[in-house]
Amino acid sequence: MKKKVVVVGGGNAGSIVANKLAKNADLEVTVIEPSEYHYYQPGTVDIVGGIGKEEEMIKNTSDLLHARWIKNYVTKVDVENHTVFLKSGDKIDYDYVVIAAGVRNIKLEGFPEWHTIEGAKLMKTMADNFEGKKIVVGYFGLIKCPAAPFELSFILKQRFPKAEITLINPVAQPPQIQKPMAEILGKIAKELGVQVIRGFKIKEIDRQNKIIESENGEKINYDLAFIDTPIRAGEEFSNLVDNSGLIPVNRETLRFKDYDNVFAIGDITNITTPPKTGAIAHFEANYVVKEIQNDLYGQGKGKFDGSAACAVYSGYGKGAFIYMNYEKSYALGPSSIFFIAKKTFAHIYWLTVEGKLI
């Protein structure tokens, strides 16, 4: 009898797991995903910067998933009884469940979300209408990719070379493993004339007077501001999350607590170092595919090493490349090679999601 795998979420990580496991004749794979469309999330920066088109960042979910797809919302994952409950009232039993549902950003009134196509389009409109002098880019809390605010700042500096661009960063000192990334991004910022203020934890934003105040009482004026917001798992996973609002996993096995058949991958896990990127979600997906098949055939467990990577636009046709795992990290660039690599990957991404590449 076939073992049942339920994948919750049909984004980057979920699609890779589903499509690769669907090739195994001993598995019955089902994906629960409510959206008809799949978005290439790193491409939102391209849209804001005017260097990418919306249609390049979207594909139909049906064209990418090669496993059984149920278009519905999950309301609960019952890990004790191996059951996934759906909004429709249906429930699905599983032998293995992979939770790859992504996260939700806390909404901040007056500021668009960074990681959606609609949010990116609104940010582009705001940038298109910018006629002032001061632009502030920042974030608070735990966000998806800490390199993203730098990348956006660099793109905006290229677009508005005469503007005063300030990046406010709540992290006073990055973790040791992230220092190569912090150093190269800081170097690029200095070369471009982007001011970086570390340890600036946002307390309040006065939208009427356009003032951002820190917890220490420091104030910054702006004419245009883009603020990324903290992430958390959806309410449907409230029975699984820890105090961070994310699902706790063993970082070497990506399993939830002591449940050998419950995996969580991508943004929804409580792993924060390496940071949350599409690449670590990809590598996590590949690891889980191998783990489920190893378990199926009694071949024992492996260990996930935390591999993550990202290419970052650094402005003016150049980019930087960052790699890290749990033990080491390095950063390269800026170079036109990494700009080309990042633009190219936006196209190959779709092949990776289908499980046809990497």
From TrEMBL:
One function term, GO molecular function aspect: oxidoreductase activity
Domain of life, per lineage: Archaea
Domain FAD/NAD(P)-binding residue range list: 3-273
A Pfam entry, by short name: Pyr_redox_2
InterPro entries: FAD/NAD-bd_sf, FAD/NAD-binding_dom, SQRD
Name of the protein described by the UniProt record: NAD(P)/FAD-dependent oxidoreductase
Source organism of this protein record: Acidianus infernus
High-level lineage: Archaea, Thermoproteota, Thermoprotei, Sulfolobales, Sulfolobaceae
